[in-house]
Design a protein that fits this description.
CATH class of the largest domain: Alpha Beta
Shape: globular
CATH topology of the largest domain: Aminopeptidase
Distance between the termini: 68 Å
Number of strands: 11
Radius of gyration: 26 Å
Bound molecules: zinc ion
GO molecular function: carboxypeptidase activity; metal ion binding
Family: Belongs to the peptidase M20A family.
CATH architecture of the largest domain: 3-Layer(aba) Sandwich
Keywords: Carboxypeptidase, Hydrolase, Metal-binding, Protease, Zinc
Strand order of the largest sheet: 1-2-6-3-7
Protein name: Carboxypeptidase PM20D1
Pfam family, one: Peptidase_M20
Number of domains: 2
């Protein structure tokens, strides 16, 4: 019989591979990445949460239709910021750019390129959404702040301003200029951030670093990595809005046209869904763990016991010849959150005529 040797070969190979993986998993120890605790002196978490709640209660809702924007709410928000953060507004210079974007400058007395901290203060509407609490209550319950903008992105703005406020109150002078940039129309692809960029260009300023929202603390995204992972976005993805418009000659609803407008529209949506944009080339390096500063990229996958080293994953490999690592990467890229981070978002929406 020649069958047994033919079968035993692959079986033995699989067993050897499984044993190698098991050995690796058993020996695996996450990379030690001790992070010294942040200096939280001068910060009051409860007071900061209350301030965030108050800012959430001001409904700075964005809209692409200027007539739908409550300009008074945005003005109230700006005024309240000045009252809630008096030292920031005493020490830093604040500009209100055309339309309402905010730009603070904290002078250092040096000519080093500045640090720019960004967080927009507009939010998306809540119409038609089911909330367990009033989305503009800003309620603080059991250590959580509830409401529209708590995460995206008034929370970030409050975190930045709390840090600046405590340092300004203590008489701190930064080692380089610090700008705080807060746009009022980020959610509708507005011009607030562009205006801030134009200000820098006009003044010949090239930032040393820009830190904006993005990423999250997630679980279960990278195969084989237990616990929480802080995802740091290193590149900005694109965005594609598609308006699908179709039409029919019309007629009575009792006698619809075969392959009419709704059917063609549905087909177009399915084709879009089946052809997402390719992951960007800049996403070929993913730092999913938090290695100590100076750790080479090749070690950033040390938080995973699996054969996959995420830092070796790239869209090109995923699309290339099949392999163990490629399959793990495939799982990574199939995760909705990973896909969203790596690709231009394309989401069919109205208006559509039939
Ligand atoms: Zn946001």
């Amino acid at each position: 019989m020649r069958t047994a040797p033919l079968l035993l070969g692959p079986v033995a190979g699989v067993a050897a591979g499984a044993a190698a993986v098991a050995r690796r998993v058993a020996r695996f120890r996450p990379l030690e990445a001790p992070v010294p605790p942040a200096d939280a002196s001068g910060l009051d978490a409860d007071a900061a949460a209350a301030r965030l709640g108050e800012l959430i209660r001001i409904p700075t809702v964005s809209s692409r239709d200027p007539d739908q924007v409550d300009a008074a709410a945005f003005a109230r928000f700006r005024d309240r910021l000045a009252e809630l953060y008096p030292h920031t507004h005493r020490v830093l210079e604040r500009e209100v750019l055309d339309g309402g974007a905010l730009l603070w400058r904290w002078r250092s007395g040096t000519d080093r390129p500045p640090l720019v901290l960004m967080a927009h203060h507009d939010v998306v509407p809540v119409t038609g959404q089911a909330w367990t609490r009033d989305p503009f209550s800003g309620a603080v319950e059991d250590g959580w702040v509830h409401g529209r903008g708590a995460v995206d992105d008034k929370g970030s703005l409050v975190a930045v301003l709390e840090a600046v406020e405590s340092l300004a109150a203590a008489g701190h002078t930064p080692a380089r200029d610090v700008y705080v940039s807060s746009s009022n129309d980020e959610e509708v692809l507005g011009v607030g951030a562009q205006q801030a960029v134009q200000v820098f260009r006009d003044r010949g300023i090239e930032p040393w670093a820009v830190v904006d929202e993005g990423g999250a603390v997630v679980t279960g995204v990278f195969p084989g990595v237990p616990g929480q992972i802080a995802v740091v976005g290193l590149a900005e993805k694109g965005l594609l809005d598609v308006d699908l418009v179709t039409s029919d000659p019309g007629g009575h609803a009792s006698s619809p046209t075969p392959d009419g407008a709704p059917a063609r529209l549905a087909r177009a949506i399915l084709r879009l869904d089946a052809a997402p944009s390719r992951p960007g080339s800049t996403t070929s390096c993913w730092g999913w763990s938090t290695p100590p500063a100076g750790t080479p990229p090749a070690r950033t996958g040390r938080c995973s016991p699996t054969p996959a080293r995420c830092d070796r994953c790239s869209p090109r490999r995923w699309r290339g010849p099949a392999g163990r690592r490629t399959r793990w990467c495939g799982r990574l890229w199939r995760s909705p959150s990973s896909r969203a981070a790596a690709r231009a978002t394309c989401w069919p929406r109205g208006p559509a005529r039939t």
